[in-house]
Amino acid sequence: MIPLSAWKARGRTVTTPAGAVFVVDTGAEHEGTPVLVLHGFPTASWDFAEVVDLLARRRRVVAFDFLGYGFSDKPARHAYSLFEQADVALTVARACGIARAHLLAHDMGTSVATELCARRAWSTLPIELASLVLMNGSVHLELAHLTIGQRLLRSRAGRLFAAVSSRRTFGPQIARLCARRPTDAELDAMWELVARDDGAARLPQIISYLDERERFRHRWIGALERLDVPTLVAWGERDPVAVLAIARALAGEIPGARLRTWPELGHWPQLEDPSRVARTVESFWDELPF
User: Minimal CA–CA distance to 54: which of 32, 35, 33?
Assistant: First the structure.
């Protein structure tokens, strides 16, 4: 496990219209197409820290915390729209001089990735997508099995539920999503990323991206159905929320998509077995014809 303090020390901030965003840029000495990592809800880029270091042996990897997450700013009374988070990703890419990238997305990050694909379909995406990796996300929300906590955060009781959330209540909720139970140190780090700068109070706002998934479903699923970018759908089979049916639906509707599943892993493959995740995505990229 990479300590949070060490991860934070490696980063810098990039300014966006809504606030400062934390960015780690590793492996810049390597030539070739860089990797842009899009993390999930409710934690941060630290989820990918070990995978980032494994991939950075051969590639440049840029990971960042979305607005409202981790070490990035968490403005109050903010919408935290997926459209804005896509803008944040593009601001980071521009600040890092990235014109072409492999996208590696997990959970909520897969939703941001689909918005980037939609912009590509409409010829409004300012960067080129070399490939797309989608991991354990609720792109098909109608197939997802949301947790009680997620449902409460989306309800009228969301603010109250967030107010009484703590490390003690958070840990078991996260552990139930993983096939390999996170260590106490990992759960401590995940909670710190959520709670810092009054972040727990923002949970009802940032989870509103699920409402957008429903509202703009046709925009995003339509973009995936027309996608002509090499795509890998990589999935922990023992995920109780973003269930395997979602992976199969994605692999079936994205032209030419490959499906790779991990029978022993759950919702957080990059935490549960970072070496396996790194090997899988490296193998996918190595097989690309460019």
Answer: 35
